[in-house]
Design goal:
heterodimer, A: mainly beta, five-stranded antiparallel β-sheet, globular, B: four-stranded antiparallel β-sheet, 11 strands, 0% helix
Chain lengths: 111, 112
């Protein structure tokens, strides 16, 4: 069964304190791994897609990496506006485009 | 508009009533999806459509139905609402395989 597990569930950082969020996955052939950001009361917003082990993507203070079993979202020198819930999802080769989501990591960055 | 529009934004519904959640996209995406999001359970797929005229069941389809008469619209119907269907419902669309989704802003539904 395809499965996604994110850790930690919640993370509190001081502004400027770098850290990483983890996304572990089990899938019958990975088509792609997706990261989303979700603000309270809003729909998820697409951040990155990673397709193969070793691939990296960057956007401002965020960097996503991928191995055969997990993905990391590295946050460098975060700011309070980076506070949000970060969702990871996988798309299997066997699926017709469906994404399977983890439960998310809620990040709070304090000034 | 650009993106996905969901309506209503919130609704309180009496148990046993029928309700249709509306979803319209203007990006000409082939695929559309309905998810529900519950605290502690994350986003779970209800139904999906890979192209107009076709639909499929997701992880939690019971009590819900969908139709895809054209590319732009993908309504979700609760035939007879129950309190366990209290949730936030998100519609999403995608150009196709390998692409991420664009999500709507959600419908917060409370069944009492």
């Amino acid at each position: 069964e395809d499965q996604v597990t994110q850790s930690p569930e919640a993370l509190r950082l001081q502004e400027g304190e770098s850290s990483s969020l983890n996304c572990s996955y089990t899938v019958s052939g990975l088509r792609g791994l997706f990261w989303y950001r979700q603000d309270p009361g809003k729909g998820p917003e697409f951040l990155f897609t990673l397709y193969s082990a070793g691939e990296e993507k960057e956007k401002e203070r965020l960097k996503a990496t991928l191995t055969k079993k997990e993905s990391f979202l590295h946050i460098t020198a975060p700011k309070p506006e980076d506070s949000a819930t970060y969702l990871c999802a996988v798309q299997a080769l066997s699926n017709t485009g469906k994404l399977i989501f983890g439960q998310g990591t809620t990040l709070q960055v304090k000034p | 508009i650009a993106g996905i529009t969901q309506a209503p934004t919130s609704q309180i519904l009496a148990a046993g009533r029928r309700m249709t959640l509306r979803c319209t996209q203007d990006m000409r995406h082939n695929a559309m999806y309905w998810y529900r999001q519950d605290l502690g359970l994350g986003l779970r797929l209800i139904h999906y459509s890979n192209t107009a005229g076709t639909t499929g069941k997701g992880e939690v389809p019971d009590g819900y139905s969908v139709s895809r008469a054209n590319t732009d619209d993908f309504p979700l119907t609760l035939a007879s609402a129950v309190p366990s269907q209290t949730s936030v419902y998100f519609c999403a669309s995608s150009p196709g395989l390998n692409y991420g989704y664009t999500f709507g802003s959600g419908t917060r539904l409370t069944v009492v």
